[in-house]
Request: fold
Amino acid sequence: MKRIIAEIPNLITLGNLLCGSLAIIALFEGYWYIAALLILLAAVLDFLDGFAARLLKVSGPFGKELDSLADMVSFGLAPGIMMYMLLTSAVAPTQWSDFNPDGTLAIGKTDYSQWLPYLAMFIPLMSAYRLAKFNLDTRQTDSFIGLATPSNTLLILSILVCRAFVLDLHLLMDGSLDDLEFFWGYTIAKNPYILLAITFVFGFLLVAEVPLFALKFKSFGWKGNEIRFTFLALSLMLLIIFQYGGAPFIIPLYIILSLLNNLFSRK
Reply:
């Protein structure tokens, strides 16, 4: 019985891995919304496995290693595939003038841009480096050094969802988008250079020596959790006011608040 109980956190971690794997399949098959839901479920399971391990008092090195392997798929490879999809959509020809009369792509229309989507693999590379570093870094118990892989994934996921809304609007010619949803889904997601900037900036943040607060509540009182409650309140406001269009701002907000927290802590 004790053996079965000890495996509960590991089973939850495997659920995280399963969701990440299925999300990648859904991305390649064009089911972006399903992929988004699977990644969100993976994030919930990633939180629950550690919570269950602490609750059942069965934390150990095996669970830590298994968690990193699962995170590499759900929050390392999957966001890389998401960015690959976004970049592929951004550089894809969208005008009839890009095609020959027989339907083939006109020569020279995409030139160098054909290989741009492959630069999205920078995300899995930096994610793997970060996860290996995290397992050996004893400083990251109550806070993070560098951006956590789930946070980076949620940023890319939010842009992907906004892009999917824009594509649906063009395909169905129905419904409407607010300005921010259109901004992220078209202005940002259709610009390969902005997407590449996001890829490399946030990819480097994964391994940067920048302290970022963790959403780990040792108590639910205000004192000692000011930065966490402030972040949650502002994030909720963004989602209530701007809905999906506000989601991509949450991770940049998290980074800004962390930097401000570091500044005031030093003072």
Q: What stands out?
A: The beta strands are 143-145, 211-213. The chain has one domain: 2-266.
